[in-house]
Amino acid sequence: MPETVSAAAVPLLPPLAAQAERLIDLGVAELAGMSAAELRSFAEDAGPGDGSALLAVHPDRAPASVLAPLLRREGQPGFVVTDMTDVDRFEPHHAELPDAPVYLVRGLDRGDRMAAWSPEEALAALGKEGRTPLVLTEGIHWLLQRPEVLERNHCFMTIGSRLRKADGTLDARTPAIWISNGTGRDGRERRDAPKVGWCWWNNRHTWLGFGSATARRA
Q: Which structural domain, as residue segments, surrounds residue 207?
């Protein structure tokens, strides 16, 4: 496999109650058909958290197309690339989500050490480590709480989301979140904005790690 790079420290997440308030303020609870009280109650029952647990709304309730525009970086709103109109059809793959509207994701890692690996290589390595890849919406939730996790030259793929085609095979695209350079179809006005796009399954990128987690629970 390609040479790895050292992983950057993962910033601690806010207490779960603060995460719930953040999602309420952004309108995520309403978009997901939940009341603010329901989200606060879940956070309260889960405890304060230790800085390693992320509050995530199930993608069936809050899909990526709804969450991406809520991202912010240097005042720029997030967006989904124009050639990924099917972003919400990408489903969990090698990542089992709890059957609940809201759940916790623990042990987040940006996967810097796997920069310049292909998604296929990274998935195998994560499995050996007892980790599972993040789904796209989990990656977005992480950045909603900690925007600073997305850095130039240190962004990440979310290979826990894959699109299965009508013939049963997997689409070769894999979602990723990075920072727009304001070129091409992105438009100059989107320079520095958080960007949800895709990469090919067997390609390698020196500036993309692989987001992963150790556990999920409702």
A: 16-217
Q: Does a structural domain hold residue 102?
A: yes
Q: Phi/psi of residue 189, each to 5°?
A: -70, -15
Task: Give me 57's structure tokens.
Answer: 């709304």
Q: Give the pLDDT confidence of 49-71 residue by residue, as tens digits.
A: 789 999 999 999 999 999 999 99
How does pLDDT run across 138-165, given as a tens digit for each residue? 999 999 999 999 999 999 999 999 999 9
User: What's the Rg (C-alpha) of the chain?
Assistant: 16
175 in Cβ contact with 65 (< 8 Å) = no
Cα distances (angstroms) measured from residue 211 to each of 48, 82, 167: 24, 23, 28
Q: How far is it, in rounded angstroms, from Cα 195 to Cα 180?
A: 6
By CB neighbour count within 10 A (0-12 exposed, 13-18 middle, 19+ buried), where does 192 fall? middle
Considering the entire predicted model, what is its pTM? 0.95
Confidence band, pLDDT 50/70/90 cuts, at residue 6: very low
74 has pLDDT over 50: yes
* Angle value at C-alpha 203, between 96 and 145, nearest 5 degrees: 50
Residue 10 lies in a domain: no
For strands 76-77 and 53-57, give the pairing: unpaired
Does residue 138 fall inside a structural domain? yes
Handedness of CA 31, 14, 12, 95 (dihedral sign): negative
